[in-house]
Amino acid sequence: MIIRTVDKSKIPTCNILGVNIAAINMEWLLHYLKENIENLAGDYICVSNVHTTVISYEEPEYRAVQNGGILAIPDGGPLSTIGRKRGYENMARTTGPSLMEEVFKVSVERGYRHFFYGSTEETLKKLYTKLNESYAGIAIAGIYSPPFRPMSDEEDKAIVEIINASKPDFIWVGLGAPKQEKWMAAHQGKVNGLMIGIGAGFDYYAANIARAPEWMQNNNLEWLYRLIQDPKRLFKRYFHTNTRFIWLVARGK
């Protein structure tokens, strides 16, 4: 069992629909990771947005997962907007893909090692190639595409051993929400690295999909750009969670 030695109580948070969203910005987060990465092994970071926050409000078990890691960062623009209105003036949108980019930029200098867990073998191979092209010398400790079925205890134990043997600093988990957060919670204290649930981050860096233009990101419209790219999969999700979020916040929840 890997025991966390970082004091979670020192992280500023804003409770939104029951989820303790970190009231931070990217500068704060990068400094925090730089200072504490060795002590964060075995813990996890949730990249939280409107979708995951509404699910957390509706499902207590998932809410416990969101609150059970070291951080739940405000990937969704509306979360940081609410935080600032509540007095957290420095709280800003801190997206998963942007966090990946900032960490990749300094990985060679700081000797960070990365393990990528999730997605398909095809996407992981493209991701491996693209990262080596963009960040020469980056240490990719391992990649693993899990089967699209429940894994046996023996299979799970084997992949934990593979991850730990690779000695990663960061374990990027791309299974999609809420699966990736549940996976991280189930492996808290078992893997020797910091887990970060990154959602579509693998697809962005494998160049399977493009990120929204910067002006859309800055105006909390990245969800719309993603919806245009994949309407069949995302329309139902956004229609339910976005409207539900607005309704709950309007009611003072």
How does this structure look, described?
The chain has 253 residues and is an alpha/beta fold. It folds into 2 domains: 8-205, Rossmann fold (3-Layer(aba) Sandwich); 214-250, no CATH class. Helices cover 50% and strands 15% of the residues. It has 12 helices and 8 strands. It has helices spanning 26-36, 50-58, 60-68, 77-85, 96-110, 121-134, 153-165, 179-186, 201-205, 214-218, 222-229, 231-250; strands spanning 13-16, 19-22, 44-48, 71-74, 113-118, 139-144, 170-174, 194-197. The strands form 2 sheets. The chain has a 6-stranded parallel sheet with strand order 4-3-8-7-5-6, sandwiched between helices. Strands 1-2 form a two-stranded antiparallel sheet. Helix 6 links the parallel strand 5 (113-118) and strand 6 (139-144). Helix 11 packs antiparallel against helix 12 (231-250). The longest helix has 20 residues, at 231-250.
What labels would you give this structure?
253 residues, 8 strands, Rossmann fold, 2 domains, six-stranded parallel β-sheet, alpha/beta
What is this entry, summarized?
It is built from twelve helices and eight strands. It is α/β, with parallel strands linked by helices and 253 residues long. It is globular, with a radius of gyration of 17 Å.
